[in-house]
Amino acid sequence: MATLAFHDFPVPAKAALASDRPAALRLIGFASMAVPIAGAGLPLAIFVPQLYATHFGISLATIGFIFLLGRLWDVASDPIVGVLSDRTRSRFGRRRPWIAAGGVLFGLGSALLFFPPSALVGPLYLGLVLFVFYLGWTMIEIPFSAWAGEIDRDYHGRTRVVTYQLTLRSIGLLLVLVLPTLLDQVRPGDGGLKLQVVGGFIIVTLIPALFASLLAFREPPLPDTPPVRAGFWATAKVILSDGLLLRVLASDVAVTAGQSIRAGLIVFFAVNYMGLPAWASGLYLLQFIFGVLAGPIWLRIGYGLGKRQTAIVGELAQAAINIGLVFVFPGMLGLMIALTVAQGLTQGSGNLMLRAMVGDVADAHRLKTGHERTGLFYSVFSLSAKLGPALGIGLALPLVAWFGFDPKAASAPGSLEALKYTFALGPALAHIIAAALIWRFPLDEAAYREVRRALDAEHSSPTAKTA
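^ that's the sequence the OP posted. Answer follows.
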């Protein structure tokens, strides 16, 4: 099997012609699956526990334990689905059967979770429904991400596909934030109706999105190598031995940790430090409104700088914006709004580039080993979206509490200053770490084009051998 050193490459090959790129309308159809997926996350964390506790009398401790088990199952099922989708060989492709079956389970789980029959609701019901819901979610999310990395193998083309995914994801998240806000103006405090509206949004968008995603593109030809069959420890060894994948994963963990610190503390900052309770939700919503514009902006920047450099610039820009929060004091609403808008315009810049880089890393791995593991690599990358928030919230909330901050009582000036500096500098530090982790990442545009040429040469050669 060919080997490759990531240095001293020739001038990169000419990028794919515009006529060779997937049409925008097809990409929108494919990426539309991101809308119901994104729309499910926030209500699951905010509205579901509140409703099942207040309306159905399940204790918060029991709900917390059930959600913990559900999240552990979710984490465990990601690599399982990733490996199995890589191994799948069918007339419909590798990814499509998983997404179709996952869509059915996800829709069923959403209907049962957001429209629960009162006579059946209890801890066992909630646990079983979450099991189905998370399984369907994983069966969509992992093959969907892997397929996105396979639609366009061009270095910038892959970033373009992922940009459509993340932009539609931002739109889905924005809509699911706006709907409950509007409902509060008509039926304030109606948690049951709010849950049903959000559940209806997920199901109504899921049905057309599922068909649009499945029919938008043909899957690429199945690999000409037999599917890899390895046990748990062998698979873990593959992951841990791939330094490129680990660096991308670690960087994204830092990115999502910084984002979760900001999300977890922004309401406390607005209410307790700024004294602006009316802006508590508005600032968060404002950030996501401008976040919809972030994907196309950073895609254009990526065309000029490349993924690694763009990710570094985006992360350092977010660090600078968060540091700017140090200079915000009570009453300075204008500066706070300006920084929130800037945060929205840089939102997801690192996530976007890092997600596109996973496909490049998977291709480099295939060249080195002869094995196709795109689904596995994206399943591992998805863990950062779960590990990062756990680290961010798990560190930030105990820290501000240790400094004496209590949202239920009047806090001393020192504890409010600690809240401010944690809110500002915690994300800044995380974004700086994310940039440092990929500072000298070797798989740049020139290196990837050499990988692509070597893979194409192997595929076209009748005497090509596999490892």
